[in-house]
TrEMBL record:
Belongs to the RAMP family. The keyword Mitochondrion does not apply. One of its GO terms (cellular component) is plasma membrane. This is Receptor activity-modifying protein 2 isoform X3.
């Protein structure tokens, strides 16, 4: 089986030279049929590893790693990868997303985006928290006092 996987890589690399637009669902399906007997997750894995991921890796490594964390720099490559995985999955009639595609994106995130800062919500400084807590506590007795005064002196019915 290992020899067959190597041949698939060479075969797919040859096909890849024709450009992404030369592919059709029948091409993907016939590759899976010929080498795996049917569209399977193993076939999907090989297609992703030989068609989608190398293009993304090449695009990412062509830019400086300091630019990886800027969405505007990588969004096109990321979208192309997502589209590629979806197209192949759909052609093979394998639901998308699926665990293999999800793992592919996890691997890509751990390789290229693990050093990117994430915007996390943090607590405000203690002074702000204290002011936000104390203000309503202090307003309650004041409001009660106003209600009592209004009912005593207001309309004289009490």
């Amino acid at each position: 089986m290992k020899g067959a996987l190597g041949f698939i890589g060479v075969f797919l690399s040859f096909l890849c030279a024709g450009g992404a637009n030369s592919y059709s669902c029948m091409d993907y399906y016939s590759i899976c049929q010929e080498f795996f007997g049917a569209p399977t997750m193993v076939c999907l894995h090989n297609l992703l590893q030989n068609l989608c991921i190398p293009k993304f890796n090449e695009a990412m490594t062509s830019m400086k790693s300091t630019n990886w964390c800027t969405w505007g720099n990588v969004s096109n490559y990321y979208s192309n990868l997502s589209h590629c995985t979806e197209e192949i999955s759909d052609c093979l009639m394998i639901p998308w997303p699926n665990p293999l595609v999800e793992q592919t994106f996890v691997d890509i995130h751990s390789r290229f985006f693990k050093e990117c800062p994430s915007e996390e919500l943090s607590d405000p400084p203690p002074v702000i928290v204290m002011a936000l807590v104390i203000t309503p506590i202090c307003l309650i007795p004041l409001m009660v006092s106003l209600v009592v005064l209004k009912t005593k002196n207001g309309d004289g019915s009490s």
